[in-house]
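User: My collaborator sent over this chain with a note saying "see what the structure looks like." That's all I know about it. Can you take a look?
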Amino acid sequence: MTGTGRARARVLAAAASAVLLAGLAVACGSPRPAASGTGAAGDAAASPAAVASSAGPASPAPSPSRSPAAAARPLTGITVGIDPGHNGRNGTDPGYINQMIWNGRESEACDTTGTQTASGYTEARFNFNVAGYLRAALIADGARVVMTRRSNDGVGPCVDRRARILNRSGARVAIDIHADGGPAWGRGFTVLEPVADGPNDHVIGASERFGADVRAALLARTTMPVSDYYGSNGIEFRNDLAGLNLTTVPKVLIESGNMVNATDAALLTSPRFQRKLARALLAAILTFLHK
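Assistant: Without extra context I'll predict from the sequence alone. Here is the result:
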């Protein structure tokens, strides 16, 4: 073979090697999120878009075979819990949602229907929409996400069961998403934080830090102000809610705005605002987990 022929052979061999390496990189990319479980409405199954159920395995830690982009995702290997408050058909089964459960201090109703705007846009729908946007953003950053309900077409689960789902999920942090039904003149969001109650004693400090991160993120990333009728400067401590009393993971509940107020309602029903709110919650979760 001539010198020119040998050089050409070396070039072809290098090109073939590059193609082979590219194929291996694709084959060794990051895993897809686990598919959701099955079961009756209210079971510990995930949302409709194929999230792992609370019983499923957590996403594996990055391995040397993963691509650099996958390894760099900030939430890889971390589980986050989301409770979209209420459910779209709670009003169809009063016998179920009015049953009494123990919330850690006293009895309360299993759940409620939630509030709605003057035009009939329900809180349950808002909660689930924001949860869906947040879930997608978390998964894009590598997280495993556990949600307490899979759709907006069911009943329940009861608030004590929602707490157990998230407690058993292995979540490092969790958020309960709600909107309020306050006086028509009142505006703004409030972050509800737990009070030491036994099961939640060891996560009180962490929950307060997370609540401060949520408050700061909403002010920085949305146009919703702090509430002018509820809480103190956007924070309220509650000892009568099962989701906060029974939590064993750092958690807060966000009342994202007042659905009865016309200005807040225009924001809360807007998909654009819902996506902004989800991005703000993502930012708060990232800040909390990476301090």
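A starting point for your reply to your collaborator: The CA atoms of residues 40 and 47 lie 13 Å apart.
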